[in-house]
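Record 1 of the preview.
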Amino acid sequence: MTNLQIRFIPDAEIDPDLQMEIDGLDKLAFEPERLEDDPELSGITWAPSEWMVLGRDGGVLVTQLGLLKREILAGGERVWVAGVGGVATHPQYQKKGYGSALLRAATPFMRNIIQVPFGLLICGDETRNFYERTGWQAAADKVLFAQENGERALNACVMILPLAKQAWRSGKIDLCGMPW
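->
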């Protein structure tokens, strides 16, 4: 990894050109065919981010993630989390530490700016080890979330990152809104 420049941008400050860059990286990093063919992910409406965390190397957008603040239900109790979603690294820059650096930079932002006791993300089995290496812990294998046509469940790894001295409540997780 060379000189990664990390920037936190509120969603309201993302102009059309930057949005086009973000969308372009999403298309490169995520396989559209997999999303369309996976019945678990089919037809999901995703929540928009409130902040984007962007990593550039030499002016090139190489890694990004989205953040939002949400009160959810964990084990039947309400808890505030920073939702982490859309973690993406350009395929040519993967396995060079960019994604890990971005997650490490996001940790104090979630703790001090968003001010929540936990980060929460949903990932597939193929990326679980990556998140575990950056301090995230598996919390569940299923999550409930809202969609226009009612509540749905997603069978995927739900991971938390403790940001305060608060214990995580095990049990059913309901995102109380759209997934991120």
